[in-house]
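Reproducibility note. Readers wishing to regenerate the assembly model reported in the main text can use the exact inputs given here. Chain order matters: entities are listed in the order in which they were concatenated for prediction.
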Amino acid sequence: MKAVVAWLDERTGCKKLVHEALYENVPGGARWRYVWGSTLLFTFAVQVITGIFLWMAYSPSSQTAWESVFFIQYQMTGGWLLRGLHHFTAQAMNVLLVLHLLQVVIDGAYKAPREVNFWFGLLLLLLVLGLSLTGYLLPWDQKGLAATKVSTNLIAVAPVFGTFLQKLIVGGPEYGHHTLTRFFALHAGVLPGMVIALIFGHVYLFRKHGITAKRPLRRPDAAFWPDQVFRDAVACLAVLAAVLGLILAPHWLNPSAPLGAELGAPADPSQPFSAARPEWYFLFLFQFLKYFPGTSEIWGAIVIPTFLLLLVFLLPVFARWKSGHRFNLAFLFALLGGAILLTFEAMREDRADLNFQAAIASTKWQAERVKELAASPNGIPIIGAVALLREDPLTQGPLLFAKHCASCHRFGGTDALGAIPKDPPAASDLKNFASRQWLAGLLDPARIQTVHYFGATKFKEGKMARFVTKKVAAFGPAEKEKLGKAIAAVSAQAQLKGQRAADAADAPTIEAGQKIIREELNCTDCHSFLMPDENATAPDLTGYGSEDWVVRFISNPAADEFYGSRNDRMPAFGKDKILDEKSIRLLSNWLRGEWYEPKEAADSKLATALPKNPALNE
Amino acid sequence: MEAPCENCDQNRRHFLKEAGAIAISGVAVAVPAAAGLAVFLDPLRRRSGPSELVRVASLESLPKDGSPKQFSIVADRTDAWNRYASVPVGAVYLRRAGDKVEALNVVCPHAGCFVNYLSDRKQFLCPCHNSLFALDGSLANLKSPSARAMDALEVELRNGTEIWVRFQNFQTGKPEKIPAA
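Running the prediction on these inputs yields the following structure tokens for the assembly.
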């Protein structure tokens, strides 16, 4: 061993290098207050290690970025831990940067002859913020894209070159593949390269000038190794423990919380996202911007922050003045205090903002739902996970209903998103439409003329209502039983997912019901059922409530097979091109409860049963 | 005779600090490295599913003279997070052998190139390193770089005309036929 070291040393001078690195003199001996620089170096090393491994599984394009991060997080061994470490160490790094800056200024380590090193440090701080900003986009989830849109739009505010610069950073006029490739190249190549170069300069200058010892010296001088290294190592381990705590604690406190870093729903540049907020350490800038209305935005976004930053760069110059150091301390603490105040104010406003809270709840629900869909046996379509939500009846149904149907209809008394529309209902409540329970209500003399069914339509006094209020009202027990069978038979036409087991079990009843409909209750006097009838005057009961039936009905309720010329006010959504076929089909499937549900929530990697769409609950 | 130990205590403390510093920084770096390695090694636990018989061609489409014809194998494929339904996953040579059908994987067992059929010589030649195989897939030239014959695949003739093949890839470069994981 010794021979090898000697051989190597002769050729490289490594012994001297190691000696210089380890036996740097620490005036007054090792102290805990000197650990901040080392913890930063450590966090950077963690980011390089975890970053390179993440790189091996990450795929930067708008169709694969979210998908590959999902795969890392939920399908690869230890992926949640790796991503959690990278995510939370980035946050720790921002905090440590501030602590390091404070310690350097408090101890006067920024003063001559160490100005250049102070500036190196500030440049490193800016680079790390750049790494945070670029890294936030890479999962290509809703919040990442929203935050990036804001920050890149702010660049456009800059005079003269703003719009050019924005286009260059975004990689074109729209956010997409090239936004990701550019941000990834910056995040994993350019910025870390610059950080490494600056760290060399920073450490070199630090060694050149030596530690700025805290006076008075309490103990005799000591070498860096092992006393200070020991303290540094303990501090690094404490940082790691804190990061692991951030990854694990939410899950320990609430087992349904996701492990590690959050992954929102995939970015959809075509959709509004009202829960847009930057990462917490940029909240002060976000809040600051609120105070600059209209065209004064450039002051809040660029001029004032740049000016304040310039002042920080000039701290070593101010330090030359009498009481300059004290001014610097006051200035820095004022700046930090201001940032903290702004951060709290931003959080306070958000907590009080019910719309924002609703947006957060909705985006969280979407994030869980899309992961459920992505983990389904069909996997993620090649056009990307964003299509999973776009084509999911459970996600789109309530949105479509609230927008297009809720002005007349209700869904469980609301507009399907939880709000109760101002105008009273003008058509039936469609929750559980076509189910036995819903049909039983329709055929109940006490209920058919309420607003829940025909009460607010012109069918309130129609033939059907008359049939129910006169004939059905007079039914004896035997006829009531027959009616029940008929209801089961009509409802079975809908092939509802929730009724599949009951339909299969009641096959004989349903068959009997079909006969009763035609031969005993005389429904087929007006309706056609299971066989075409040109003289039918009421909606076709063949396939009643099935996917295609509902699609055709929404497309054109005034078609001959439905209400014909006696249609009330319902628009022909398909015929008049109010909705496209895809949206109508989504509505149909949603109304019928037809959407993907994981077989066993406990079996899936997500391990948590998806709570109901908050929109449906409230 | 033992030397008097003046700084024993100090030395011990010094040593503990050194060992502690090394151990603690080792742990601090090992945790992220271990998480990264776990993800890096993840592919090792992934296996391709059991191969199923897939319908490839009909008997009529094979030349009567027993010369081979190449067919694509269409099956479902999983690529990390994407699942593809009915995409080409490989190819086989099929040929009549008496009243039976033989199937050979087109992949050369040497290094994995697709072999060509030379109809004039009635042999298979690999375009990469010139491995030469006879019509039945056996090595036609013992100087061939390939360590084994072409990989025969299980064939089933259904209803007298449908050719079903259990498509499978095998590890290349080895004298034995070992299924590729």
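We highlight two features of this model. The interface with chain B takes residues 42, 45-46, 49-50, 52-54, 56-57, 67-68, 70-72, 75-79, 81-82, 85, 89, 225-227, 229-230, 232-234, 236-237, 240, 244, 374, 377-382 of chain A (CB under 8 Å). Confidence is low (pLDDT under 50) at residues 601-618 of chain A.
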